[in-house]
């Protein structure tokens, strides 16, 4: 078949579904191929970008490990948020009590725990895909550091470690800067501080891996990092005891993910 005939046949078939005023088979092939390669590359792209960021952070490790909290965080302000949200945990039935004065239906901007289970049974993920742990949980400056600090470039995406209700998103907790607090069940909450930008609002429900903020340098902070806490009730616990091992993902035989500045 001559080429001009082949173009006409292909064009005729394609024309049925897409119109074919200017399309020839070469163009069609090229566009289809590009679209399919683009789709297939999305996952690879993400992994490869994470790998590149991690390599960059490892190269800058000496600088990044100087980025951490600069001073006090208001414990009282955090406990106030936790206690207020606890009042709602498991109480949202959306039905009034027999006395007619019961739980009000959730209103926008108010804490709600309708979707929070009594006990979260799933796994946790790290709050960022790449970064350097610049300060561990535990004794620091004669006090207890209630989280771990993970340093990275400002704008590094920060993700929900598990399904949760957003019980706080704002900059009103002294020292924490722009901070998000998530409630995962009746006891467990997580906190992400010093963000440059918040991507969720109080009252939102998020699933594991939802982008909740962009890492930053707000509040009492020496440089871009996320101060990250996990609490059971009022008590902060070492996130490393609950999170997966610190090397997160694996691709092309090379391990990626969070690195400790001590490595
Ligand atoms: Zn910290």
Helices and strands in order:
Elements: H1 3-18, H2 25-59, H3 61-64, H4 75-88, E1 132-135, E2 138-140, E3 143-145, E4 148-151, E5 157-159, E6 164-170, E7 178-183, E8 188-195, E9 197-198, E10 205-206, E11 211-214, E12 225-232, E13 235-237, E14 247-251, E15 254-257, E16 259-260
Parallel strand pairs: 1-16
Antiparallel strand pairs: 1-4, 2-3, 4-12, 5-11, 6-7, 6-10, 7-8, 8-12, 9-11, 12-13, 14-15
Word description of this protein:
The chain has 263 residues and is α+β, with helices and mostly antiparallel strands. The protein is 26% helix and 26% strand. It folds into two domains: 3-59, no CATH class; 61-260, Glucose Permease (Domain IIA) (Distorted Sandwich). It has four helices and 16 strands. Strands 1, 4, 6, 7, 8, 10, 12, 13 and 16 form a nine-stranded mixed sheet that branches. The longest helix is centred in the N-terminal third of the chain and has 35 residues, at 25-59. The chain is globular, with a radius of gyration of 24 Å. It starts with a helix and ends with a strand. Mean pLDDT is 79; it is low at 7-21, 91-112 and 248-256. The structure holds zinc ion (ZN). Zinc ion binds at residues 68-69, 135, 145, 147, 149, 227.
